[in-house]
Design goal:
Elements: H1 3-12, H2 15-40, H3 45-52, H4 56-64, H5 72-82, E1 86-90, E2 102-106
Antiparallel strand pairs: 1-2
């Protein structure tokens, strides 16, 4: 185990740090998936920005921020601009917790007005 992972394991024993870390890691993971989708669809940052009705630096900052905090509206705008929809699966945080049979499908409202 690397020193980084040793320190991270120690830091994660602090409940406040762990909560903030996991909250941030979800945002980062979601943006990484959206960035991979954008690239797979051969959509440039410039084109994505145009489709979203924002300036390119806004898109660049979003995908390159060290502490991203996208709103649901922003996620919805990105999905819509890429012609995608998202499915959200809710499951227990730890294996010993009981199963939660919830599955949601997020479909952006295409009737929503553009920014």
């Amino acid at each position: 185990m690397s020193r980084f992972h040793q320190h991270l394991r120690e830091d994660l024993s602090d409940p406040e740090f762990a909560a903030a870390f996991y909250d941030m890691s979800v945002d980062i993971a979601l943006l990484q998936v959206l960035e991979q989708a954008r690239k797979a669809l051969n959509v440039s940052e410039k084109e994505l920005a145009e489709r979203m009705g924002v300036q390119r630096p806004t898109v660049t900052r979003l995908f390159n921020a060290s502490h991203p905090n996208p709103t649901l509206d922003t996620i919805s705008d990105i999905l819509r601009a890429l012609g995608l929809q998202a499915e959200i699966k809710i499951s227990p945080a730890s294996p010993e917790d009981a199963s939660i049979p919830i599955k949601a499908k997020f479909v952006p409202d295409i009737r929503r007005t553009e920014h």
